[in-house]
Specification:
alpha/beta, 2 domains, 13 helices
């Protein structure tokens, strides 16, 4: 039994594994077709609204979300409650979701979202005999992040148990939102619960960063810019600030060592540390779809209604597929340091000893 099969067993979906693997393969093909075709985002938006029916988009979104989940499983980043942030350089995947979804409000990433770019897609278990999403989710919140200074264009996708399209859904959603607010604002460690991978910075990192920079001249402004509970620039800005400060010779050695310890912890715990908001699953989708895609019987290309979007070239795929893993540059003070957990702990021991 491979790791993904074990995951399906854990969430009690083993009986539907063949269907789910087929959806993953189809979702991967559909993501590639959307990202790599030559149309601009506005053309994709118009096409999707005109050509894709509700039944078709339900199957397509289910496949796309299972494809993202399969990547999270490979990276040991699964969650019971959480979100994906997907790199979307030309805004085409965002345009797809805007074309099939319904506008709604959300408390997530208000600073980064623009008007008309937040919505949701309802998915009902049993519709067209589709397997459910993991953990009983049946709604996908999307937020298109366009031309962000740090991240470029990205798409935020959060699977949820309830949408906002019916009175019953609104009631359940409101109850869950109220519970989430209690955890977010009144429970220390509420953003570090096992099984949660949301776009919030873990409370321990927020506290340690504040304590380390509060007395620095620009510390208060840095704390405000980083933010907490998903309302600032998050870990990406925290990493940028710490990277600059560990080479600042105007600071004392003890201050720089303290900042270095936090920086090393960030870099040992997270991929894409310069881009992420918090603890979400960050995916460089153009790089992911530039290689071999998952295979399944009967899947030979994009879904029928997306085949017109599938006329992409290998050159376009290579352009989109430039890996971002190497964008996190290393300041001179730690250029000879591995960012493994072992070397991080050794460095921390040296600083604290």
């Amino acid at each position: 039994m491979d790791y993904f099969s074990q995951y399906l067993h854990t969430i009690k979906l083993s009986a539907r594994e063949p269907e789910i693997r087929g959806l993953i393969a189809q979702g991967a093909e559909d993501v590639r077709a959307i990202l790599c075709q030559p149309w601009g985002a506005d053309e994709v938006l118009s096409y999707v609204r005109r050509e894709i029916s509700a039944a078709e988009h339900a199957r397509q979104v289910t496949g796309i979300m299972w494809y993202l989940t399969s990547i999270a499983v490979e990276r040991n980043q699964t969650f019971r409650a959480g979100a994906f942030v997907c790199r979307d350089p030309h805004g085409r995947l965002s345009a797809y979701f805007r074309g099939i979804g319904r506008l709604r409000t959300s408390s997530h990433l208000k600073r980064q979202s623009a008007s008309g770019c937040t919505g949701g897609v309802d998915l009902f278990a049993g519709e067209d005999d589709l397997p459910p999403l993991a953990n009983g989710h049946r709604h996908v919140l999307y937020i298109a992040i366009l031309h962000d200074e740090r991240r470029g264009s990205c798409l935020f996708l959060k699977p949820e148990h309830y949408g906002v399209s019916s009175l019953s859904d609104l009631t359940h959603h409101a109850v869950r939102y109220a519970k989430s607010l209690v955890r977010r604002y009144f429970v220390h460690g509420g953003n570090e619960i096992v099984g949660m991978r949301k776009e919030r910075i873990p409370d321990q990192f927020v506290r340690d960063f504040r304590n380390a920079v509060a007395k620095l001249p620009d510390g208060p402004s840095a704390i405000a810019e980083v933010g907490c509970r998903g309302d600032g620039e998050g870990i990406g800005y925290m990493h940028e600030y710490l990277t600059d400060k560990v080479d600042d010779v105007t600071l004392s050695e003890s201050d720089r060592d303290l900042l270095l310890a936090i920086l090393l912890r960030l870099r040992s715990e997270y991929d894409f540390v310069a881009l992420r908001f918090g603890n979400e699953v960050f995916l460089d989708l153009p790089a992911d779809i530039s290689g071999d895609l998952p295979q399944a019987p009967g899947v030979y290309g994009p879904s029928r209604s997306l085949q017109e979007l599938g006329s992409y070239s290998g050159e376009e795929t290579r352009e989109l597929g430039t890996p971002l893993m190497g964008i996190v540059y290393v300041p001179s003070r730690i250029s000879d340091q591995s960012v493994s957990k072992e070397s991080t702990q050794a460095t921390l021991d040296k600083i604290q000893g």
